[in-house]
Amino acid sequence: MPEVEGQIYVQMFSIHGLVRFENPELGKDADTGGQVLYVIELARHLSRQPQIRRVDLFTRLIDDPRVSDDYAKQIEDYNEKCRIVRIQCSGKKYMRKELLWPHLDEYIDKTIKFIRKEGDCPDLFHGHYPDAGYVAMKLAEIYDLPFIFTGHSMGIPKKQKLLNDGMKESEIIKKYKIDTRIRVEEKIIKNANLIIASTNQEITDQYGLYENSKAPEYKVIPPGIDVERFHPYYHDRLPEIEKPEYAKYAQANMIAQLERFLRYPDKPLILALSRPDKRKNISGLIQAYGEDKELRAMANLAIFAGIRKDINEMEENEQDVLTRMLLLMDRYDLYGKMAIPKKHDPEYEVPELYRIAAEKRGVFVNPALTEPFGITLLEAAATGLPLVATNDGGPRDIISTCENGMLVDPTDPVQIADAIRTIIIDEQLWQDYSKKGIMNVRKYYTWDSHAETYIKTVTPIAEKSAASKVPAAITGKAVGKRFSRVQRFLITDIDNTLICDKDPYVEEFIKWIESNSEETGFGVATGRGADSAVDILDKYGFPRPDVVIADVGTGIYYGEDLRYDQGWETHIARGWDRKKITNLLSDFDFLELQESAAQREFKISYNMEPGKDRLAKIHHKLTRNKIRYTLIYSHERYLDIIPYRASKGKAIRYLSYKWELPLKNFLVSGDSGNDEEMLRGDQPGVVVGNYSPELENLKGLNKIYFAKKPCTGGILEGLKKYAFA
């Protein structure tokens, strides 16, 4: 594909954490770490590429007094091509990522609404971390567009690590919803068009643990850093470079923070910067420093372990890490030698912190037990600070490429201390590592180079999606694209409404559907299952519908391949207890459960002949036991009990909400009590001429037209009556 200006529109998703362009609060909690910085920088730098038309970073809208008002702003612009879009789901309170799983289908529905309002479909969806990966995967299915995934961390290795740490599997499942996460990750890996990883080890040691690991294409694109912000320490000495006032303030504040703790602050500084997470092995570094008398004598230790106010108010994992830090500080009597400041500003103070450590001829240490990448290593290296890091994942690649430090076994305190001491003592080695880090980061690890590689990689994928930008008039797989175009919808019952024996108007009706299909969608709402509905439509020669509302409104399916609307299921499932209902009604001998083929997870179907007070008895029994339900009795024979939130009419209202189509732009038609609730809605309705007596009570109601002709003839009458074309 030629490099055309403004060609590709990317929608990226990073749902959990606190995401904003200015001064991201990295380290504020376990969910606001390197991933947040990664997606922000990727969005920024992609927007500077000429091939990008737009890049939107989707996250969750949060309106919570515990966090900044910034996260309650629906749209945050970075430039004319880049913005953060915040979508609300599961209320507005900030919550940890593990609690978001049940609410992701709500997020998907509201994102679809946003896309419809914007009138602009992306060329691809890119999900970061499994929760956003699920959202991007489902949107890609709906719009028949490419799906790209970046995991950042994966569930199987995390579960294994927690088990090795002694945590019970039941506790892991309860706290981290790890079983849900791994199940979703398998689907993501299977369906992704491309997985972007930071290292080759990530592909083999993380994705390689999954059954579907061979399914997708992988591309290693290391993250970059902002080399202007993380400029070398010696720039501050150059008279021609004037340091901005905010940078001077940040530098002075960091020096003051360190001097609060250190008796001899001019000594070389051993620096560590990470979240307070057990996997970061902060205690291993303190042990290495504390047990080496020579190292304690020649250098100070500073550990910035996230941002905290009160340890007692933090989560258990963070509490344990910080408490262990304090106990080790006391055990080795590191007062005056070890600094543990409570806060730092990632935007301005962290770059100054690296430069302060470099000026003092110090070392940056990442002692993590496992490290998928390690963006702080690049930041430190870019300022001229030599590295000591765990011999794992990203650090192995970074130090091999930059030649600016030593790899160590993070479980060996002696090896950690020896590496740090060697670099500090050997002035020539320190200078060599410092220079190579500065030069090689700028050669291999900038965000500009990352964005350029990203564009080259995704352009062929986007090219394939561009060919399908305009969907067929009668829907194929591109459900989202189709629904973005239609302006109105005809939805009709099937049996005795759309299909009757010897109906003379069928051909005329089919011709109307096909000639108006560019802007008018066609759907059915039926008591049948989805497969049965499609089979009978095929038998009678009707076009495949855009949507099938099946099983009396308990299932919604789209397009030729009947893609299931998981969001509707999530919506109706709340409070539904099928087993309890069948147990409560088992005493009524006038109810006969229909055969198993008629039963569904969200539909209980009975045969019931008319009888005095029978419906009243059922209502009484269920309401007395605090059951919320919808009861539908039709043709004086069939009784269906479905969730309170479900019905044909409610399903139509859901479609209206999800796809941003006003109810007045829907037209519904039916013939029996099974359709009454749907016909009573706010949208116009048609009762065909061969209707059942159950619908007599609808006569005279506004927006309901009683046709004279039966079946499709009656529907055509209604279409003409409402000028529905």
Description:
- The protein is elongated.
- With 725 residues, the protein is of the alpha/beta class.
- A hairpin with a 2-residue loop joins β3 (75-79) and β4.
- The protein starts with 7 loop residues before the first strand and ends with a helix.
- α1 packs across α17, α3 (129-143) crosses α18 (479-485) and α5 packs across α6.
- Residues 469-476 have low confidence and may be disordered.
- The relative contact order is 0.08.
- The strands form 4 sheets. It has an 8-stranded mixed β-sheet, sandwiched between helices. Strands 19-18-17-16-15-24-25-26 form an 8-stranded mixed β-sheet, with helices on both faces.
- It is 40% helix and 16% strand.
- It folds into 4 domains: 8-220, Glycogen Phosphorylase B (Rossmann fold); 233-444, Glycogen Phosphorylase B (Rossmann fold, 3-Layer(aba) Sandwich); 470-573 and 646-725, 3-Layer(aba) Sandwich (Rossmann fold); 575-644, Alpha-Beta Complex (Hypothetical Protein Ta0175, Chain: A, domain 2), CATH 3.90.1070.10.
**Contiguous runs where pLDDT drops below 50 for at least 5 residues:** 469-476
Major sheet summary line: 8 strands, mixed
Please state roughly what percent of the residues sit in beta strands, choosing from under 5%, 5-15%, 15-25%, 25-35%, 35-45% or over 45%: 15-25%
CATH superfamily of the largest domain, by name, is Glycogen Phosphorylase B
Mean pLDDT: 93
Total domain count: 4
Q: Please state the overall shape, judged from the principal axes of the Cα atoms.
A: elongated
Number of helices: 26
CATH class of the largest domain reads Alpha Beta
CATH topology descriptor of the largest domain: Rossmann fold
Provide the spatial order of strands within the biggest beta sheet.
Answer: 3-4-2-1-5-6-7-8
Query: Pairing-aware structural class of the strands and helices?
Result: alpha/beta
How much is the radius of gyration in Å?
A: 31 Å
How far is it from the N-terminal to the C-terminal residue, by CA? 39 Å
Total number of beta strands: 26
